[in-house]
């Protein structure tokens, strides 16, 4: 994941952009721009060959550039809105494209010793679990938190924390299957773009979980009871 990113240059090779900017492959596939076998030509030339406006393409690619900077929020409601836009919406866009690329890599390179066999199935499993998790947050937990919370909100929060642990375990499975998202030296552009996208998914999911576990949820969880003697009103001495 790039942070913060410099503007994309139309003179860059389209294959270089595909690897450097996760999510760009979906744009290129939709526009039928060959970023893999024909990835050595510039984006400018690729667009011209298809009769496409390169500035329009650059503007769309710019929307994929994201910053790792941690913004400040005045309220839990603002933080929730940020989580929904920056992570929930992004995960929903990331995973279908990663699954499509994984299927292609597994099919085209099935005889390669480093092919990540089973990656598409694992990503499909991760997508299903993550979509279900986010739906529970959006339909149940987040509305409760936006309304101020209640004494019972600790139960759905506990469930979400438990599922976050499972998401972390899935990231470890991804790393093990892909040699820690490191493609072989001779990997094609699609393979390298796939692993760059997996790295971004991992980074985004870790940041997503961190914001919820360490910033949002503690605002609604009761602090541990103080069993020690305070400075006043202590009855421990039994006078």
TrEMBL record:
Q: Which UniProt keywords apply?
A: Cytoplasm, Iron, Metal-binding
One Pfam family matching this protein: Hemerythrin
Q: What is its main location?
A: cytoplasm
* Top-level division of the source organism's lineage: Bacteria
Q: Which GO terms describe its cellular component?
A: cytoplasm
GO molecular-function annotation terms?
metal ion binding
Q: Does the keyword Cytoplasm apply?
A: yes
Which positions fall inside the Hemerythrin-like domain?
80-219
What does the UniProt entry say about where the protein is found?
Cytoplasm
Q: What is this protein called?
A: Iron-sulfur cluster repair protein YtfE
What is the protein's species of origin?
Answer: Chitinilyticum piscinae
Name of the gene encoding the protein in the UniProt record: ytfE
